[in-house]
């Protein structure tokens, strides 16, 4: 209904949104680093200015848009523990699908072997 936006306007809006997101992420990281001691919440590793970039802000509910002022959704984790934390979450999700101990008997090479066997006795050798 409103006036049509030109492409450059849309680009500007997108760029502004990305910029805002970046600022917001930097914002909560800085706030979390001011609020909490620079210690990994899992392994207890301590950080200082030389390595603080390896200390990351984890969102307890995994919602990066949930950034309450009191920091209750933030947890400072080193990059390794942060990675682990998200892996556990993924594993839990995958586990609900029950991928282990199932009856899937997938043998990718069974078919290949029969193909190779068949080929070796194939009518390839013709003599003049
Ligand atoms: Zn850690
Ligand atoms: Zn996280």
Q: Which of globular, elongated, flat, extended, rod-shaped describes the shape? A: flat
CATH class equals Alpha Beta
Which oligomeric form is depicted? single chain
**Alpha-beta classification:** mainly alpha
Main pleated-sheet profile: 2 strands, antiparallel
Named CATH topology:
His-Me finger endonuclease fold
Indicate the mean pLDDT: 82
Bound molecules: zinc ion
Low-confidence stretches: none
Q: Gyration radius, to the nearest Å? A: 27 Å
* Proportion in helices: 40-55%
Instruction: Indicate how many domains the architecture comprises.
Output: 1
Query: What separation lies between the terminal Cα atoms?
Result: 81 Å
Fraction in beta strands: 5-15%
The strand order across the widest sheet is 1-2
Q: Which architecture per CATH?
A: 3-Layer(aba) Sandwich
């Amino acid at each position: 209904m409103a006036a049509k936006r030109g492409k450059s306007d849309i680009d500007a809006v997108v760029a502004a949104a990305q910029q805002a997101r970046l600022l917001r992420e930097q914002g909560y990281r800085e706030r979390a680093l001011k609020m909490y001691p620079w210690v990994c919440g899992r392994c207890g590793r301590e950080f200082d200015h030389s390595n603080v970039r390896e200390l990351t802000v984890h969102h307890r509910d995994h919602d990066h848009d949930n950034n309450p002022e009191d920091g209750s959704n933030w947890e400072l984790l080193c990059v390794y523990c942060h990675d682990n934390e998200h892996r556990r979450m993924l594993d839990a999700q995958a586990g609900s699908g029950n991928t282990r101990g199932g009856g899937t008997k997938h043998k990718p090479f069974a078919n290949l072997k029969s193909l190779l066997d068949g080929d070796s006795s194939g009518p390839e050798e013709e003599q003049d």
